[in-house]
Amino acid sequence: MAFAVAVPATAVPFSLESVALRRIAARVSAVLNTLEPVIATLVGFVVLGEALSTLQWVRVLPMRVAAVAAN
Is the dihedral of CA 16, 14, 57, 61 positive or negative? Predict the structure, then answer.
């Protein structure tokens, strides 16, 4: 059962990302990839109610700054 869930849960997003990478500029792709962990952190915080420590928030900040600087 776990295999039946794990394979599509991995293959579908990977396939969609591969298709999208062919259609967008490299710069846009780099910014989106930089923001991915930040967005995941914020979704975890807002949707799932997960709390981050101060150190974890400090570690998120450089990724956000890099994304803004690259744009």
Answer: negative
The predicted-structure confidence for 3-52, as pLDDT tens digits, reads as follows 888 888 889 988 998 898 899 988 888 878 878 887 888 898 899 998 88
| Distance separating alpha carbons of residues 66 and 61, to the nearest angstrom | 9
Interatomic CA distance for residues 48 and 71, integer angstroms: 29
Instruction: Taking the CA atoms of 52, 58, 63 and 66 in sequence, report the sign of the dihedral they define.
Output: positive
Question: What predicted TM-score, i.e. pTM, was given to this entire model?
Answer: 0.55
CA distance 48 to 41: 10
CB 71 within 8 A of CB 31: yes
